[in-house]
Hints:
The protein is of the alpha+beta class. It has helices at residues 3-10, 19-27, 32-80, 84-90, 93-100, 105-122, 152-163, 204-216, 249-257, 273-278, 319-441, 445-473, 485-495, 497-502, 527-544, 600-610; strands spanning 126-131, 136-139, 168-172, 179-189, 192-202, 220-225, 231-234, 282-285, 297-305, 310-316, 483-484, 505-512, 522-523, 551-560, 563-570, 615-617, 632-638. The longest helix is centred in the middle third of the chain and has 123 residues, at 319-441.
Amino acid sequence: MSAPTALLQALPPPDTRPWWRRWAARLRKPNAHVWLTLGLVALGMLLGQRLSENAGMAQLAAVASERLELYTAALDAELARHDYLPNLIAIDEEVQALIAQPQDSTLRRRADLKLARITVRAGASASYLVDAQGNVLASSQASDTGNNPLSTSEQGRLRDALQAQAQHFFAVNESNGSTEYFMLHLVRRQRQLQAAVVVRLNLAPLEATWVDLGLRSHGEKLLVVDDNDVLIMSSVPEWKYRILGHVTPEVRAALQSSGRYPGAELQGMGMDTEGMEKQDALLVAVPAARGLREGGLLLAQQRVAAPLGVRLVTLSDPAEVWRQAHYATWGGGAFGASVGLMSLYLASRRRALRQVFQAQTALQKAHGELERLVDHRTRELRATNEELKRQIAQTLQAETELVQAGKLAVLGQMSAGISHELNQPLTALRALSANTLRFLEAGRTQTVAENLKAIDSVVERMAAITRQLKSFARKAENAAEPAVLQTAIANVLLLLEHRLRSAQVEVRQDLTLPEHLRDNLRVKADANRLEQVLVNLVGNAIDAMDEVSPRRLLISARLDGERVRVQVRDNGKGLDPALVPRLFEPFFTTKPAGQGLGLGLVISSKIVHEFGGTLRAVPPEDLLHAEAGGMCFEFDLAWE
């Protein structure tokens, strides 16, 4: 196989799925939604900023345009209030007479007075009657000195207007720097210019309202620009008589030499006036000035007042628009983040639902398998339970039989002593009955009576022995009356009397009890089963003392609160401590083979446990009466 072929086979096959499926697969990757969220945040911030800024600029431009229209209308209205005045003055008879005879001083004084009255009534600043060369013939400001009421620059502007036959122009008042508006009415005779009526309006009051507006509102500035781009009126006083755009030294020198702006420095504002002519609203940079940020951008709009030959320009501060755009940027970012997080949540939820569905499917499958296993296990457990019940029943039956067998084993051990106990009374009965017959034949009734009493005593003794044997061998009832401890000890010693006497065992009792309980301490135990426990303990003690002499057996009892502790102790050879823990194991015995089954202590421990007590081997330090050697067993019972 060639290298190119192997390389082509190693490449993954081309993905032929539709593009939307490929994109969906990519979005399921762990980091895809993180990048998607970041992209949505960036897009939301960009769209929020752009949309908010565009909308804000449009609204700002609309408001500025409406105000610009109002300013233009206000300026037109202010100037139009006196449009009638030049015509009114021109048709006055005295003015007409002066135009006809300009050298008549009387007519000039009358015309001066007439112009003064009309000007005051009309509220204008001044009015003049000039000839075709701009020389003043009559004036509302005439004085006895005969000074020319027009400044040099104003008279130059007037001559230029007459030459151009203009009907109005703006000029600078040299005395106070205010902007003034001149309106002209040309008087012609036979199409020749003979004179002109000039009305002078001071625009300082109107400009003062604009300045007040500019001081109260930093967000909007109003400018009036003439044909040379010079600000002849402004709501910012510092900007007045500045050039709106950029200015070169040559242009500044030409404007200063024209005489139209006496005393003005004509500094440039540096605004893009060319762009303003091309667009209705344009952001322009404005140099540092009072009330504006350094290098701040303002939204500029202009309206051309064609009849006046000027332009009105508004500069609106978009700071609030940009502030809202800033908020919208963060809002758009938050919206993008919300959309991204929502998509992440929906994707996670979809993934979780898919996992839940898969888990439910697996759980249903496992549930079915579990039900099958549980059913199988249930059948096995039911069978095992039945077998266990059967084994428990057998164990209980065997335990009952073992208890009875323990009794019978004890009876077997006592059989020799019992036969000896009964043989002695029987021998005595035989002898007494034979003697009684002889004494009866001899008529010795007194002796016969004594023999009969002796026979009755022997029979009573034999009946007591058989009665104890019968009681010991009988199975105990479930419910039994409380037993008297002293009586149980006495019966046990009577049953084992022959073994004790044969083994020459010295028996001592130490019942440390109060006086009123010394002969009648009732314990919560069945009498027969209590005697069986004592028989086992005393019998074991007798066997343990086979190899010692003398042999001593101590049976003691003492009260311990609401319980009584009973101890059975011998002085035999004792037991290896390592074997003590095994004493209560079934079939464990230290006796020679054939002499014990290893069940006596087991059965006795169970009986004491059923009485609510405990049977245990007692260490030497816990003994009531310490003696060297031997073994001691103790059990406790509740007493009444």
